[in-house]
Amino acid sequence: MHELSIMAEIFEIITDNIAEYNLKKVTKVELKIGEMTCVEESALEFAFEAFSQDTVVENAELIIKRVEATAECENCKEVFKIDYTNKLCPKCNLFSSKIITGNELLLDSLEGE
Predict the structure, then answer these.
(1) Domain-located, residue 53
(2) In whole angstroms, what is the distance from residue 55 CA to residue 98 CA?
(3) Given this model, what pLDDT does residue 84 score?
(4) Cβ neighbours around 48 below 10 Å, total
(5) Dihedral pair phi/psi, residue 108, rounded to 5°
(6) Is residue 20, in this structure, part of any structural domain at all?
(7) 92 known ligand binder
(8) CATH number for position 85
(9) Mean pLDDT in each 10-residue stretch from start to end of the chain (113 residues)?
(10) How far apart are CA 93 and CA 84, in angstroms?
(11) What torsion, rounded to 10 degrees, do the Cα atoms 53, 54, 59, 64 define?
(12) pTM of the predicted structure, to 2 decimals
């Protein structure tokens, strides 16, 4: 379950922000998670609960925004949705594409007081 190590790194960033902005309580944490990251939302939510316990993040709302995986064909410049099994350009039928979105894994915003 790599979600625990992912959340450990996210909490390092959260802790840095808490100190920088002198927050006494965190009320909301928003994450952006790309479809291609293989991150399980339920495992990430479990890890969030575990890491937030007995901290200023406890009882904060966790919002996970999924980012659709898209690619751009390097041949015809068509932008299209992809998944693990299909990266074929629907316009020119070539496999010469680069991923544009879907690999994100980041802390998008943090709210507190």
Answers:
(1) yes
(2) 41
(3) 79
(4) 21
(5) -85, -45
(6) no
(7) yes
(8) 3.30.2320.80
(9) 91 96 97 95 96 97 97 96 88 92 96 96
(10) 17
(11) -40
(12) 0.86
